[in-house]
Amino acid sequence: MDQIQMIRDPKQQIEMVGVPEEHLAGHAFHLFHLTSPDQTVSFEFQHNVCGRSMYAEGTVDAVLFLAKKVKSKADKRIYNMIDVLREANVR
Predict the structure, then answer these.
(1) What are the φ and ψ backbone dihedral angles of 61, each rounded to 5 degrees?
(2) CB of 23 closer than 8 Å to CB of 50
(3) Residue 65: how many CB atoms within 10 A of its CB?
(4) C-alpha distances in angstroms, 8 versus 15, 31, 52, 58, 86?
(5) Is 31:46 a contact under the CB 8 Å cutoff?
(6) How far is the C-alpha of 21 from the C-alpha of 50, rounded, in Å?
(7) Residue 71: domain span
(8) Are 70 and 48 in contact (CB under 8 A)?
(9) Which residues of 3-38 are buried (b: 16+ CB within 10 A; e: fewer)?
(10) Helices (H), 1-91
(11) One domain for residues 58 and 44
């Protein structure tokens, strides 16, 4: 956690990270690099989101999921987006 690097400068976001210029106002580019304590194993994963529409669509999917739960009188509990995805209500 002590090596988190945030790049907020738009020029660097384009040149170093590869954010398309048209998505500078709304994007989420993250690269995670994990290394074992003895440095013999490393693992990386990355996700890049361009724009904000994915978040809006996910919100709609979650609302539809919850409406279905209310209508079916499902047990009251706390749900998360994994529950939404598992139910396959995604468009």
Answers:
(1) -60, -40
(2) yes
(3) 20
(4) 12, 15, 17, 25, 34
(5) yes
(6) 10
(7) 53-86
(8) no
(9) eeeeeeeeeebeeeeebeeebeeebeeeeeeeeeee
(10) 10-12, 53-71, 81-86
(11) no
Question: Helix or strand or coil: residue 23?
Answer: helix
Residue 52: both structure tokens together: 């904000």
User: Tens of pLDDT along 26-69?
Assistant: 999 999 999 999 999 999 999 999 999 999 999 999 999 999 99
What are the tokens at 79?
A: 């749900």
Q: For the residues 11-18, what does the mean pLDDT come to?
A: 96
82 and 61: one domain? yes
Of the candidates 75, 36, 84, 77, the one whose C-alpha atom is nearest the C-alpha of residue 57 is 84
Q: Are residues 43 and 58 in the same domain?
A: no
Read off the amino acid at residue 30: H
